[in-house]
Amino acid sequence: MELIDWIVMLAVTLMAITFFCGRTPANWSRENRARHLAGARMLAQAACSLWAALLLAARGLFALDGVLGLHPAPLDALTGVAILIVCACYWSIRGRKLLKPRRLFTAC
Predict the structure, then answer these.
(1) Would you state the pLDDT for residue 41?
(2) pTM of the model
(3) Euclidean distance between the first and the last CA atom of the chain, given in angstroms as a whole number
(4) Residue 67 is assigned to a structural domain of this protein
(5) Among candidates 96, 88, 92, which has minimal Cα distance to 35?
């Protein structure tokens, strides 16, 4: 895939996250709005991290000429991909938890 295709995929993903997570009800408090905004930000971070991991895997490992003619060591590239995927999973889980409304009386 060309780099333009990768950039378009990232833009579409970020627009979808913004569209689905951008609206908050008018009767929410500031604290709930801040939680919702932090959750949307974490989902956007997760999308960017996953995009970077897939781009690194596609361009760094499976490209014939590498990036700018450079060939990273496969172990280094896989380590970077693994770290980015772990960060994406963590941010996705935390972001989804922040998007859910807080439960009242959870101790009961």
Answers:
(1) 93
(2) 0.81
(3) 53
(4) yes
(5) 96
